[in-house]
Amino acid sequence: MRNFLLFSAFLLISAVSFGQSNKEDVDMIQAMFGKEKKDLVQAYMTIPEAQKTAFWNLYDQYEGERKALGRERIALIESYANDYNKLDDAKSSSLMNRKLKWLGDYTKLQKKYFDSMSKVIGGKQASKLFQLEDYLENNIRLTIQESIPFIEELDKTKAKDATKQ
């Protein structure tokens, strides 16, 4: 139950910052690396001067679409929180199907921009960018997953112990 209360607080904070361009993602990235995401990308990438303008224009477009998907993720998490105490087969299936659709949409977004980025900065640099994106996204997903209760409150410490055996 404690996790559910923490999760509810997380959602309240997320809802307050909803219009602030995925502030929760920015906060998580800053907590992990001490930088804003764009600064982190800029420090990590090696973009030739002649391609910087085209790259950053594409990157900003990508981020706009990625943030829209982030808002969808928040809506999905809010649905889970709102319905947690009354989950049945139908609602659980609906939430899982929404999650799978979100994952598919996220993959399509990455594919779309990987192809565009490859034309501008080459396949190696585009791969480098999306490797970083995956790393950040996986850390954000893990942080969220650790904040929300499992269906029927699986004791996460028991699950961790079971994986060690």
Explain this structure.
This protein has helices at 2-16, 23-33, 37-44, 52-83, 89-121, 123-147, 156-164. The longest helix has 33 residues, at 89-121. It has one domain. Helix 1 crosses helix 4. It has 7 helices and no strands. By secondary structure, the protein is an all-alpha fold. It starts with a helix and ends with a helix.
Approximate helicity band: over 70%
Envelope shape: elongated
Class derived from helix and strand content:
mainly alpha
Overall pLDDT score? 79
Strand content: under 5%
Q: Give the low-confidence spans.
A: 1-21
Tally of distinct domains = 1
Query: Taking Cα atoms only, what radius of gyration do you get, to the nearest Å?
Result: 18 Å
Number of helices: 7
- Quote the distance from N terminus to C terminus: 27 Å
Number of strands: 0
Largest sheet: none
